[in-house]
């Protein structure tokens, strides 16, 4: 069965990587049960915010997910995050925690690269002023490339000989080498399509190997840039420089430390805060709210500063958006499976849309069924309104994303 999508959080020391991870995995307002069978020491559960299917049918008050939570039609879906060890230049040669970083990275399907755009930390995370964060993006990508390329070149002679002797396709030969990075033949084929006029493998020189590895990285590790510490005075010029240098890479402006503070204030009942928005309400804003506590002058001043420097200026802390962007580069679509296709309820009770999984856009309904239910015989598949759905139909937002599967009785399998 396919595994759950896994998003790696990467960045140099002191870039705000750990704070970003904490802000993405704050389960205090969520639920304690997770759909994942095990959570390794370096894995965590994040929450992807989407518009829930319940909001399409006015059933928000009946929506009670088995995993995650739904708040007024905004659903927080658990998604696996990988806390990758801090990276420094020279990681591919084993410097710092390089070996651990790169070994952990094999599992990731996409990366969130947390970049300190304040320019106050150097390549190794030490305090400085005027550092150019563009360097961080370039050397991180280069470290990954040199790691993959180095592994490939060590065996290149035997790879070519085996490829020629077995008369294998380039896709099959490369998948044998790239399988250790949790790739598959389709992924390798998509990477090779990025290269025009691809020559025969046995004629590849070092430049061609580099080009192939870069194409593989674009498919295997699609990256979102979390441009962090946006409230620093030097951030603006660095943000502009990065966006101009990488126009085709998704970049989200973030202040992870602000998000962590806001969620802390929510738990302490000092504010009402809607995650992913600019809206904060204090006791001064909502004097009739008996649950809110009044703040002292110092804390009020801090909240006003957050409003002015981050929320009103950028629209949000960016934390919710950065996880959405990572899901977008992976083309993830929420698919809701229900027992009763007419009421959207489960096996019992009136609660609706209890189960939801994230799958890649364009997957067939049959593959979604296998992903969710394993090796069983499906007797029928129904969509909204009880309409029959073909196993070869594909899923997308608003299309075949609410499904009911009927399993054939044991004697008919």
What does this structure look like?
It comes from Ascoidea rubescens DSM 1968. The chain is flat. It contains 12 helices and 13 strands. Residues 27-34 have low confidence and may be disordered. Among the domains are: 153-219, no CATH class; 331-412, Ubiquitin-like (UB roll), CATH 3.10.20. By secondary structure, it is an alpha/beta fold.
Mean pLDDT: 88
Count the beta strands: 13
Helical content stands at: 25-40%
Report the order of strands and helices.
EHEEEHEHHHHHEHEHEEHHEEHEE
Counting copies of identical and different chains, the oligomeric state is single chain
Instruction: Report the CATH architecture of the domain at 331-412.
Output: Roll
Domain OBG-type G: 5-274
Protein name: YGR210Cp-like protein
Pfam families: MMR_HSR1, YGR210-like_G4
Keywords: GTP-binding, Nucleotide-binding
What key phrases describe this protein's structure?
413 residues, alpha/beta, Ubiquitin-like (UB roll), 7-stranded mixed β-sheet, 4-stranded mixed β-sheet, 13 strands
Task: Give the SSE map.
Elements (H helix, E strand, L loop, with lengths): L5 E5 L6 H8 L18 E9 L17 E3 L2 E10 L14 H8 L4 E7 L17 H21 L1 H11 L3 H9 L6 H9 L12 H15 L2 E6 L6 H11 L4 E4 L2 H12 L3 E3 L6 E3 L14 H18 L4 H11 L2 E6 L17 E6 L4 H9 L4 E5 L19 E6 L6
Parallel strand pairs: 1-4, 1-5, 5-6, 6-7, 10-13
Antiparallel strand pairs: 2-4, 3-4, 8-9, 10-11, 12-13
């Amino acid at each position: 069965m396919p595994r759950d999508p896994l998003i790696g959080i990467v960045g140099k020391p002191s870039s705000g990587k750990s704070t970003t991870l904490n802000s993405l995995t704050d389960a205090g307002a969520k639920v304690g049960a997770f759909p994942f069978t095990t959570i390794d020491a370096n894995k965590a559960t994040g929450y992807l915010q989407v518009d829930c299917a319940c909001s399409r049918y006015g059933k928000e008050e009946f929506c009670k997910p088995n995993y995650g939570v739904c708040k007024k039609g905004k659903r927080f879906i658990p998604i696996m995050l990988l806390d990758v060890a801090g990276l420094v230049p020279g990681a591919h040669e084993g410097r710092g925690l390089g070996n651990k970083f790169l070994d952990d990275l094999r599992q990731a399907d996409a990366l969130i690269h947390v970049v300190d755009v304040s320019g106050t930390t150097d390549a190794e995370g030490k305090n400085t002023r005027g550092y150019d964060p563009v360097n961080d993006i370039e050397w991180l990508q280069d470290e990954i490339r040199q790691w993959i390329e180095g592994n490939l070149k060590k065996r290149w002679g035997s790879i070519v000989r085996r490829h020629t002797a077995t008369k294998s396709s380039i896709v099959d030969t490369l998948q044998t080498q790239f399988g250790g990075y949790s790739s598959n033949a389709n992924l390798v084929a998509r990477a090779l399509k990025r290269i025009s006029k691809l020559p025969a493998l046995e004629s590849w020189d070092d430049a061609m190997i580099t080009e192939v590895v870069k194409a593989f990285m674009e498919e295997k590790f699609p990256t979102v840039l979390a441009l962090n510490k946006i409230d620093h005075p030097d951030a603006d010029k660095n943000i502009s420089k990065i966006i101009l240098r990488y126009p085709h890479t998704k970049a989200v402006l973030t202040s992870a430390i602000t998000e962590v503070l806001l969620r802390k204030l929510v738990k302490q009942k000092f504010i009402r805060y809607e995650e992913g928005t600019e809206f904060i309400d204090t006791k001064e804003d909502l004097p009739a709210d008996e649950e809110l506590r009044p703040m002292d002058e110092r804390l009020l001043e801090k909240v006003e500063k957050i409003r002015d420097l981050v929320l009103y200026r950028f629209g949000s802390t960016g934390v919710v958006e950065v996880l959405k962007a990572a899901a977008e580069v992976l083309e993830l679509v929420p698919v809701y499976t229900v027992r009763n296709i007419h009421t959207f309820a489960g096996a019992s009770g009136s609660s609706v849309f209890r189960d939801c999984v994230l799958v890649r856009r364009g997957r067939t309904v049959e593959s979604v069924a296998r992903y969710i239910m394993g090796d069983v015989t499906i007797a029928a598949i129904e969509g909204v309104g009880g309409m029959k759905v073909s196993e070869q139909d594909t899923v997308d937002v608003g299309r075949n994303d609410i499904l009911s599967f009927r399993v054939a009785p044991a004697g008919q399998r």
